[in-house]
């Protein structure tokens, strides 16, 4: 039996009893495809795992099983308050920001979820994709202007993370630059992705206050933006609900889109099939973006779903209140859907935007595509001789089992005098 490291003895049948794999530490294995292959070989399509602090959960690795879990929310639901492990969770548990219940769209269920997600969907549908592309190009040009004269840049912080954050803030009705916006952008970064010495709790409080102020401003003077459309929706959400859901939209947009941009740039700058293309070869930016969603998807694992009652999945006995982690990267490379061993990117049937009731809401994946594509194309157009400033094997992935992204992407190019 695995020692859970907590006072709570797991009941028989719970994942902690069955040779569970500690997820913390696995992130240091740099090839997720290999990692998920060996997990699948040893544990099948649903693996017992231990989260930080040896808290038991299930990692769903099979394409069929992830599709099943996400399309049966009467069995596997989003409200984390039904988790049977809460007594073992300390106040400073590192995954608490993602798992702790908040009254936002993310944790609502059934009719209430359809109401909240419906408001987000119609507000996002109001975005003109051509205008979004133009706005992203302006943001891209401003960011590029800040480093173009030096001939070198660390593209993750100065470009890939910065661009979707500014685009998301602007979609919600704030200017993409200015002191006030800069403060919000900095606070969002700290609360989503704190560095050593940052205070994410204080930053998150300031984000809440700024979004509250934005909602108040838009109640008084609505405009052509996501916030105003959410306020004017006949569903009649309260200001508090809108503040919660706007923060969810910005947070849900920022990290995955940033890593989608970063992972695509890495592929384009390291893989010959694409490197050829940058200077007029065969494969396009669109193909690189799609390949990344299959093979290096930004949200590699998503936490999660909680079992509503005792049930079976992939031959495992799941108990009411068990936590299931959606293994999206593992599902995309499941040999069951790639029987010939070749994993390609011919279509978009991947699970990178998840599936079912809580999937990334239409049209968010299309908007993310506009943001990511404009970011990558604009950079390559403005800096046509862009190359890596290090050897490809020197690039390192972030030590995270949740987000697949680079720690840094140092690049160089001929400096442009402005
Ligand atoms: C404009 C950019 C984006 C916006 C506005 C956005 C918005 C959202 C929102 C509001 C949710 C919560 C849905 C709910 O619980 O009902 C969500 C979920 C999600 N999004 Fe996105 N998103 C964006 C980009 C992306 C990208 C680039 C990816 C990955 C490639 C992604 C993957 C996901 C996943 C995996 C979920 C979780 C779904 C689940 O619980 O099953 N999103 N997104």
Automatic annotation (TrEMBL):
<comment type="similarity">
    <text>Belongs to the cytochrome P450 family.</text>
</comment>
<dbReference type="InterPro" id="IPR002397">
    <property type="entry name" value="Cyt_P450_B"/>
</dbReference>
<dbReference type="GO" id="GO:0016705">
    <property type="term" value="F:oxidoreductase activity, acting on paired donors, with incorporation or reduction of molecular oxygen"/>
</dbReference>
<feature type="region of interest" description="Disordered">
    <location>
        <begin position="1"/>
        <end position="20"/>
    </location>
</feature>
<dbReference type="GO" id="GO:0020037">
    <property type="term" value="F:heme binding"/>
</dbReference>
<dbReference type="GO" id="GO:0004497">
    <property type="term" value="F:monooxygenase activity"/>
</dbReference>
<dbReference type="GO" id="GO:0005506">
    <property type="term" value="F:iron ion binding"/>
</dbReference>
<protein>
    <submittedName>
        <fullName>Cytochrome</fullName>
    </submittedName>
</protein>
<dbReference type="InterPro" id="IPR036396">
    <property type="entry name" value="Cyt_P450_sf"/>
</dbReference>
